[in-house]
Automatic annotation (TrEMBL):
<dbReference type="InterPro" id="IPR050749">
    <property type="entry name" value="Glycosyl_Hydrolase_47"/>
</dbReference>
<dbReference type="GO" id="GO:0070062">
    <property type="term" value="C:extracellular exosome"/>
</dbReference>
<keyword id="KW-0378">Hydrolase</keyword>
<dbReference type="GO" id="GO:0005975">
    <property type="term" value="P:carbohydrate metabolic process"/>
</dbReference>
<dbReference type="InterPro" id="IPR036026">
    <property type="entry name" value="Seven-hairpin_glycosidases"/>
</dbReference>
<dbReference type="GO" id="GO:0006491">
    <property type="term" value="P:N-glycan processing"/>
</dbReference>
<keyword id="KW-0333">Golgi apparatus</keyword>
<dbReference type="GO" id="GO:0004571">
    <property type="term" value="F:mannosyl-oligosaccharide 1,2-alpha-mannosidase activity"/>
</dbReference>
<dbReference type="InterPro" id="IPR012341">
    <property type="entry name" value="6hp_glycosidase-like_sf"/>
</dbReference>
<keyword id="KW-1133">Transmembrane helix</keyword>
<dbReference type="Pfam" id="PF01532">
    <property type="entry name" value="Glyco_hydro_47"/>
</dbReference>
<keyword id="KW-1015">Disulfide bond</keyword>
<keyword id="KW-0479">Metal-binding</keyword>
<keyword id="KW-0472">Membrane</keyword>
<keyword id="KW-0106">Calcium</keyword>
<keyword id="KW-0325">Glycoprotein</keyword>
<keyword id="KW-0326">Glycosidase</keyword>
Amino acid sequence: VGLRSRSGINFFQRIYRLLFGHLELTEKFILLLVFSGFITLCFGAIFFLPDSSKLLSGVFFRSSSVEAETRTGTVSDTSTGTGKDEKILAKIRKDHEKALIEAKDTLQKRPNEIKQDINSDKAKLVQNGQGKGAKADSLPFVQYVRPPGATGHEPADPDVKAKRAKIKEMMQFSWDNYKRYAWGSNELRPVSKQGHSSNLFGSLKGATIVDALDTLYIMEMYDEFEAATEWVEMNLDFNMNAEISVFEVNIRFVGGLLSAYYLSGKEVFRRKAVELGEKLLPAFKTPTGIPWALLNLKSGIGRNWPWASGGSSILAEYGTLHLEFMHLSELSGRPVFAEKVMNIRKVLNRLDKPQGLYPNYLNPNSGQWGQHHVSVGGLGDSFYEYLLKAWLMSDKTDEEGKKLYYDALQAIEKNLIRKSSGGLTYIAEWKGGLLEHKMGHLTCFAGGMIALGADGGPDDKTGHQMELAAEIARTCHESYARTSEWENCFENVERKILNISSNK
């Protein structure tokens, strides 16, 4: 129908009146909004969904020659220009029949034979040196050895047994409610009973599931462990356009997956851990190799927290990658993971450290310290913990890690550890040479850390370090106990004020 012809106009006018003539103005407006929304959705789907470029090129801009060849089953020979449809169809038929025969033979094999074939193929790849560059879906064969003593032991002491049962009961309660109200989300908000996903993980889901895998296994909650494993296998996906915290994703997801693999031996955990590790590698693409704090998993573009001292990386974040990345190299056969974290040590060794202390901020571009703020609590804490544990994890062969830890501890003792007028030992914070006499909640881990390392330090320091660890633990205990006393005091005062008000 010609749009400019009178008959064409009359035709569309009749259609319009038939469809919309009976509607009020507001109804027409609402209908117009619905249509415009539908059109916007269609264009959005075409231009902004993943692989939209393929959709556009394949649907709207396909050349007529390619379309014709696809329909007829021919492919143009660029050298001769002649069609070879019969040869191509014969080859396709032959390949298809061969694939069917191979699949049939494979399916007829027993499962243990299939597993043996896969393992031998992987072993051949390792021998040929192809395993080093392998991706997560083609990992080298690793002989799994189940760690002794993780499960299967009941304490003899009835008091310990009762406490253990109570802790497991609490875990069961927490897990059941997470599964009921927030399954797949990163966290459960207990008051509103809704799932919550922190922006630390972007659109990455399942932090609670992955983080709880080792606890479920150790507590012998095997049904829950299998359900969590199934979720990981079916739903844990890292292929997304999302900005995540490298530190948080490493300790929660990579660490959780590695722990689950070492406890259970399930290959899915090793594969997922290495896959995620590969996604995190672009964070190290800085002039110094000190990683960015934030990373887009799709683009590989990194940046630091805007508030972190002129775009600096944070000691507790880039210093808390060592354990997981060393294991990623061991399980993947790829040395690149270990090289990245060992380079962090090299950078720190080259830098001058004020009073032997490690400031919390380091610029990844210039390789210079940011603000001279030192804290064993927030922003610094787990860096020191990982130095000690790296040495212990190496069966005490990592002499560099050992030296870095004990040198740092000596500097902390000399410059930061003080005693209050009431006799409580605490670890102060250091700001450009001036002490700030406070110790935050996160510093309380230091008591356990110092006790853990007391055995391997200088012989004359063992007893001293155990005493120091006990004093710091006592300070933390007193902080909580006295906070409770103050709360009770304020409650009593408030109660008396209310009583006076009601009497008046």
